[in-house]
Design brief:
Layout lengths: L8 E7 L7 E4 L4 E4 L6 E4 L3 H8 L8 E4 L8 E7 L2 E9 L10 E8 L2 H15 L9 H11 L5 H36 L6 H20 L3 H18 L14 E3 L12 E3 L1 H6 L13 H5 L1
Antiparallel strand pairs: 1-8, 2-3, 2-4, 5-6, 6-7, 7-8, 9-10
Helix pairs in contact: 1-2, 2-4, 4-5, 4-6, 5-6
Length: 294
């Protein structure tokens, strides 16, 4: 896996299985819009792979067209940014001149931290319901790659997809193991906590739910279970309990802090501080004699 996963870049090729006229291109600003966009627009067939991938990006910028769609509404290039991740998707025909949807593929270029790329691909593959590295027309694919992406082969492409998925799965597994270990430690410390047995059952259930979600390749499900687990551990951990400290009724001040108003340092009540006539009152609302002369 180390030889296939570049620390900064991934280039993946995916088979498009279906496409609908569910999006438009804002022809004035070359931005991807929904089908109900009312400005000047042109229909775009985004395809199931691109739709699934963009849906997994957290708070992405509006995708922009580098290659606008023309007469062929399924041939385009878009790019977007989501945090530290840069995404580019090229939709191209590779079989039968693109007369049918199965004749299209997407070239996905990802730039950014490996863990973000891996998690994006993990979630995308899970949501697709099919293996995007499996193509309908293998011979045409090999001819296309030889001409347009000679650095990629059908085999290396499949391994790249699988290795990114496995990297994300391993990262989620490590998170679950870490939280399970932390849970055992805290449960030993919180035995005197009220409702201790109920807390233990809830914690064990959340660990199980996280493991089950991972077995189903459900990344968001893993995160939800771990979030509930984290909340339970915070409640149960006796080391996080901090005693309530009342605010002091008196102010401790020194002569230096009071600017010479009180000659004795020590405990001074707010009432004494307010009634002490030795503290000069300066009215800043009126101009000084020097300012009046100016």
């Amino acid at each position: 896996m180390e030889t296939l996963l570049d620390p900064d870049l991934s280039v993946l090729v995916a088979q498009v299985r279906s496409a609908e006229a569910s999006h438009t291109m804002d022809t004035e600003h070359l931005l991807l819009r929904g089908r109900h966009f009312t400005g000047p627009n042109k229909v775009v067939y985004l395809g199931n792979v691109a739709t699934a991938l963009l849906a997994q990006l957290p708070h992405p910028d509006t995708p922009r067209f580098l290659e606008p769609t023309g007469f062929n509404e399924q041939r385009w290039t878009i790019e977007t940014t989501s945090g530290a991740l840069e995404v580019r998707i090229d939709s191209k025909a590779y079989w039968a001149f693109g007369l049918v949807t199965s004749g299209y593929l997407n070239i996905i270029t990802l730039k950014g931290p490996l863990h973000l790329r891996a998690r994006l691909i993990f979630d995308t593959v899970s949501s697709l319901g099919h293996r995007p590295w499996e193509f309908s027309h293998w011979r045409s694919l090999n001819r296309f790659l030889l001409k347009h992406a000679p650095q990629v082969t059908s085999k290396s492409n499949e391994l790249h997809w699988k290795n990114l998925v496995e990297a994300a799965r391993q990262a989620l597994s490590d998170q679950i193991a870490s939280m399970a270990s932390r849970s055992e430690e805290i449960m030993k410390l919180g035995e005197e906590h009220d409702g201790f047995e109920a807390w233990c059952l809830a914690i064990q259930d959340d660990v199980h739910m996280a493991q089950q979600a991972l077995a189903e390749d459900n990344g968001p499900g893993v995160e939800r279970a771990l979030a509930r687990l984290e909340a339970s551990l915070i409640q149960l951990d006796p080391r996080l309990e901090s005693p309530h400290v009342d605010a002091p009724m008196e102010r401790f001040a020194t002569e230096l802090e009071l600017g010479g108003g009180l000659a004795v340092s020590g405990v001074i009540s707010p009432t004494e501080l307010a009634q002490d006539e030795s503290i000069p009152f300066v009215d800043l609302s009126s101009p000084s004699p020097e300012e009046e002369e100016q």
